[in-house]
Amino acid sequence: MTGWVIAAGLALLVVLVLFYAVSIPRTAREITAAALLIGLAGYAWQGHPGLAGTPRKSAGAQAVSFDEELAEQRRALAERYGPAGQWLMMSDGLGRQGKRKEAANVLLSGLRQTPDDPNLWLGLGNALVAHADGVVSPGAEFAYRRAMAVDEKATAPRFFYGLALARSGQLRRARALWAPLAETLPEGSTLKAELKVNIGRIDALLASEGARPE
Question: Could you tell me the pLDDT band of residue 72, with boundaries at 50, 70 and 90?
Fold first, then answer.
């Protein structure tokens, strides 16, 4: 109903302006009136005056989902500065804009320069998981495993690989990574405490499903 009121009001306003405020010949008035009637008829045929208006999203607007907490954890456990840190910072910036594919591609560029950097492989694994909406793809698997192979004693690759597995529902595999990692960490460390809590939750979930943790 609101649509009809607006359309009729605009048509009346045009008529008043053209017929009284602007001096036009009689024949022109008839043509103008006919044009307005055709316009209203077209609105009645093609339009939907009874429907409520809905706001449109601006062009290019997308839901941007970037895990800031995950990035901060990575920065705390892996290299924050140096060449790898610069590539990772660029990747994080693209991720915040919702450009997940570009965020992964930036790290691939970094790996072409330094193919044996475990931090870049770790970042690539995280970026690929984010790009796949939480799915641990074969590419992400390869990146995490490569990070662990390059630095066998590094904590970060095992932690984040296990985290990606746990979030994707692969609880047994996550526990298999986290349990030995927790044993190597010093008592009283924040990460050890977090891993123990996570492992306890996994064990509880597996027990509720009637499965035994390995």
Answer: confident
